Amino acid sequence: MPSSRETLAELRALRAAGKKRISTYEIEDQGDIYDEVDDDGYKKVIRSRLDQDDFVVDDNGEGYADDGREVWNERTVEYDSDESDELPARGKAAKRKREEEKQRKDKINNGISKYFNSGTAASSAPKAKPVATAEDDAFMKDLLGEVDTNIVSNHIPTRNLVKSETRRKVRVLSPPLSERRRRELVDNKSENDVPSSPVKEQPPLHSDDFDDGPLPQVDDDDIDMGDPMPSSPISKAVERKSTAIPVKKEESDDEDIDMMDVAEATVSSTIKAASVNMTGSRPPPKLKKEILPTPASSSPAKVAPEVMDASWNDIQSKLNVLSSPAPEMRSFGKLRAQDVVEEDGSLRMFWLDYTEVNGSLCLFGKVKNKQNGSYASAFVKIDNILRKLYFLPREYRHKQGRETEEEVDMEDVYGEVDGLMSRMRVGMHKIKPCTRKYAFELSGVPKEAEYLKLLYPYDKPALPMETKGETYSHVFGTNTSLFEQFVLWKNIMGPCWLRIDEADFSAVNNASWCKFECQASKPALITPVPETENLDTPPLTLMSLSFRHQLNVKDNKQEILMASARVYENISLTDTTSPEKLPCKTFTVMRPAGSSYPIHFDTETKKQRGTFILEKSEQFLLSKFLALFEKMDPDVIMGHQLQDVELGILLNRMREKKTPGWHRIGRLRRGEWPKLNRGGGGFFIERQLIAGRLLCDVSNDMGKSLMMKCQSWSLSEMCQIYLGEGNNRQDLDVEAALKSWASTKDGLMNLVNHCDTDTYFIAALVLRLQMLPLTKVLTNIAGNSWARTLSGTRAERNEYILLHEFHRNKYICPDKYSSRLQKAEEKMQDGDDDDAADKKKKDKYKGGLVFEPEKGLYDRFILVMDFNSLYPSIIQEYNICFTTVDRQATSENENEEAVPEIPSSDQEQGILPRLIATLVGRRREVKKLMKDKRATPEQLALWDTKQLAFKLTANSMYGCLGYTQSRFYARPLAMLTTFKGREILRSTKELAESKQLRVIYGDTDSVMINTNMDTISDALKVGEDFKKSVNERYRLLEIDIDNVFRRLLLHAKKKYAAVNLTEVDGKYIEKLEVKGLDMKRREYCALSKEVSQRLLNEILSGEDQEVVLNKVHDYLRELAEKMKEFAVPVQKYVIYTKLSKSPDQYPNKETMPPAQVALRDIARGKNVRPNDVISYIVTSGDADTSSLPPAKRSYSPQDVLKPNSGLKPDVEFYLLKQIFPPIERLCAPIPGTDAVRLAACLGLDARKYQINTSSSSKQQDTEIFPLESQIPDSVRFANSVRLTLKCRFCKEQSVFEGLAGSPKMCSANGVICSNEACQKPFAVLTIIAQVENQIREQTARYYEGWLVCDDSACGNRTRQISVYGHRCLGPRGRAEGCSGRMAYEYSEKQMYNQLLYFAGLWDVDKAKAAAAKETGEKKDSLAALAEFNRIRFGTIKTVVDGYLKKCGRQWVEMDTLFRFMIQQ
Length: 1464
Hints:
This protein is of the alpha+beta class and 1464 residues long. It has seven domains: 53-78 and 92-117 and 141-158 and 169-188 and 226-277, no CATH class; 331-538, Alpha-Beta Plaits; 541-769, Nucleotidyltransferase, domain 5, CATH 3.30.420; 802-816 and 841-1075, Palm domain of DNA polymerase; 1079-1249, Orthogonal Bundle (Topoisomerase I, Chain A, domain 4), CATH 1.10.132; 1283-1344 and 1388-1464, DNA Polymerase alpha, zinc finger (Hypothetical protein af0941, Orthogonal Bundle); 1346-1385, no CATH class. It contains 46 helices and 35 strands. A hairpin with a 2-residue loop joins strand 24 (1055-1064) and strand 25 (1067-1075). Helix 27 (911-930) packs antiparallel against helix 28 (937-956), helix 32 packs antiparallel against helix 33 (1105-1124) and helix 43 packs antiparallel against helix 44.
């Protein structure tokens, strides 16, 4: 290479010769670059290229791919100015560049590609790439829902790409995946172990092959492809944009052109562009790629080690998730009528749910496809169901509200009713007389009478309930619902098989999302299929849902971040397979929490089992979720807080985003959203929207009734208690996780898996607790709807079973009052407030009898004798029923609380006792079946569910009698039932005492008998003899030995702990049973319960009393040390409290820790509603809150567990409020220890915390209190407020303790300032003013009248005086949850002592007496100061004495004490 000097010399020589260097440049001839061929030759070249493999790797569909053609027909990508971050170029250079670009485009358009692309009907304008979004799909489903097209699978057979030899052969990006890897998948990996891609192995979205196939997949165009490979043009574009390099126009987007050409080339083929295999056929090459700094990767996220263990991934790996099962062919679109009808032309449908539309009843259920034996969703519309109204004729006609002498016959009633129908413009109606019976609470209605029966359609308006006429006094059945009318008329008892005759298969077209639709013109065509046909319940498709939300701070709304679903197809209700072994399919649709996903996150999702769909926004997420939801078509939706929270958020987001096809969440097609009432009723509207699908929520009333061991009913607690080991769930703070450890691809994948695993936990709880089988049997017994039973409406089940029973016996049933009408009627009847209070008190009739317990520790065998189903048995024993008990005397004179008489023995058995006897008999038959050793596990599970349902229903029948909101409310019957219960319990106790047995406690239906036996055999013998004696007295009532207690600690009413002996395989096993103690209340933390459990184990261990007490004291000392060293896990400090109302509605919310925590959660956007359980930890606070009350220092566990939160539990609070009160009550019956000793073991100061022993304990030693005057001042005035004097000159505040206590502040000239730099004397007037001011402060404090509870566990502080005297009303003001007594926080004694203290500060003689006890110079000095200040101090003391004279405590009214001696 020439040097710089040689180059310069060469340039000088050229300049001297007048030449330029370019003139000496020689161009070498390289030959022809392109071959010149004609059209036929060019086609041969393209075919030869297509027959070869790609010469460039296609980078998973995002890079280059060869389709055989040249690059000159590719168009450059035009970038809109609003999509670019750069400003448009200006100036001459830019203008010249634009002109050159225009010339280049013209050259391209007029080049050879013009001839190759020309066609007969082709336009010169380029075609836009067709992109089918989820919204488009949903819109087309709404518009053309009846058109169900067959869309082929994503599997692309190469032999079908070209239909003719003359057609140009076009390669679709790369060879299909299935042909290359089918053999490899079969040989190397099992079906459940293959991490399948959501695109390449699953059928398309519109396919119906879902019995055994994988989850349906959506269009590839909508899938976020994640991060591109390094060689991809997308990656290059990202690099250009991130480094702020101007976009070059010459670089075109090959991917867009390829996609456009593929769409054009295959337009006449059976393969759609949306079904193209976009993921490619080859694994991406391992290239070293430099990752540019992006928001997701620039700074490493802080990983919380306690979260990133991700134990839920281990649980997920054990599940039977179907990844790539063999597909099964299924029919498309709606089912044909000939595929489902029987040979006689009738239709069989198993109905599951219902809804009411415009006076017609719509039933949803399942029908069997005769072609393949599968079951499909079905919809039946039933028309012409008529209202049934019963008019009770008057004896005499009424005119203008007054009775006349004109008698009324049925013709008169007919004419008035017919005129009423004419005025209401009811054309079609039927009227006829009939005879009906009545046995309920309305006065003036005869037991049996002739009524006028009116039938008219439900699409006409209903009559008001209070309708009365001239010829009729009452109208019954005005507000009977359409569903109730139908099931009562057709005697349909819950979900069952229905026979539908003469169904019209063409009248209903696309009214629902079901696979089969028909219409029944009248209800007479529908009849229940008899049980003798033994038709099995069809299998159901179950879907469990779990969502994660993100708070939109700007709008203060919860937005959906991800939605996970787990689908169990064709599940039989009697299947006993464990949840983890059941085959399932999963899908998760999500969007990024920020602007994008972490790098390579999409690659991470492909490694997981199941389907993961990455969307760009919440709107796309909702559309995709609905599309998959509709395809899976679940019969049952399962969730946690789905009924109260999750479903509402989902529906609100769909409404706000205007998601097309939103009504696919249910099975009824709808045109518009229902109108929401501001006053509430949201649940009922949500229930209507999902009509056709059952909602099973593990945290609603039904779920809670099956999980009584839970306290907070959080999903984590449910899993821990009911799913056992290996199924522990971790609570995560999603917002915090997204800002920290979930910002990486692995962290986000763990967060997504956490959401996905929740769907398994929910499904496992539903299956393990047998929620669906149990609720189905309960519904079959009651005859209501399955959906309502799942929501936990026990009162409604009782109503329906009575409705069916009374309807069969030709009784008119009472109408259902709405809560609004009921309140209005009560207000009208009650009159003023005093009457209303009397009525409320009257409604609380006496319940069960509870004996006063003989408290103490028992170490001999105790028998618990229990009556089996006492109240149902009493109803049967004494024939208590609406139809048998005369309630007229009671109802006419209710104020005397007269208990009605029991029916005579010769009276016919009533409907209620007969119904209960039927339920008990059916349960007895089922239990006999369970003893069959040949029964299968499925049969045993079914029978066990049935017997439990019969038991629950029979035991709850009494409840409807005393429930004021029930339409069968009959207070006299409830009073009679409980009266007989109390009578039976008293007679049982008397019988035991007559046999020299000691009854130590009794409660409602059981008694505890102290046998004084040391062996269990002797105790059981006593129990059997007593059982025989009791049962001989009654016909149906039975008493039995319920429990045998080895040792018992009887604390109070409904509060005890015992060692219970249970027989297992012929051996007795000891088990601790606790009832009603503090450790059973959710208001106590886990640490408190652990301590109580430890103490109970020691107390009931049977060891020597002294040894037990030593162990207890040592354990408490050790516990206090651990707590003060913070060696106890923070989770054990969590306290749970249930909110009875909204937190901002509590008047004392500032002093309530749960209210403060709830308000803090609301401020963050969390939903908090009444009846929610709030978890919190009382901490010592931070630098700003350490001096605030405990309520202000209470935080949620998530806040406390955050790294670097600096929050630690307030150990002193927990020792005083959570540990000490329970153990004090537990140890109260045990001699040898007391509250002071226990407090000392915990390190508490008894005087500081004013620890009081229970005055109600009979075992407490009587303490002798000395006279107040005999108590030293240091003790008597220890809690008095000290006098503070403020200097007028230096503003120094000093505490003055009197002459003896503050001698340095006294001088011969009076009181001086304690500040050595000031030493100015206080004027007497200044001192008097300050003393009076402080006296008035204490007086005002006394008159505030604050009351506090003496129970340290309660802590109730209020100014409201209880009507129960000194009884504490509890923290909620309901007179429940606390048995303490209220006392004034600042009593009159404290006020009196305060005044005495102030007066004593200025008592000179008292100071001299104190000085006399001193010695030396101090004695003389105090005596001299006393004399010098006698006049000054005397003046001040006179002012204080004036206030003391006004205090009534120092005066005793002798005339009041000795008035009885004065002769009148």
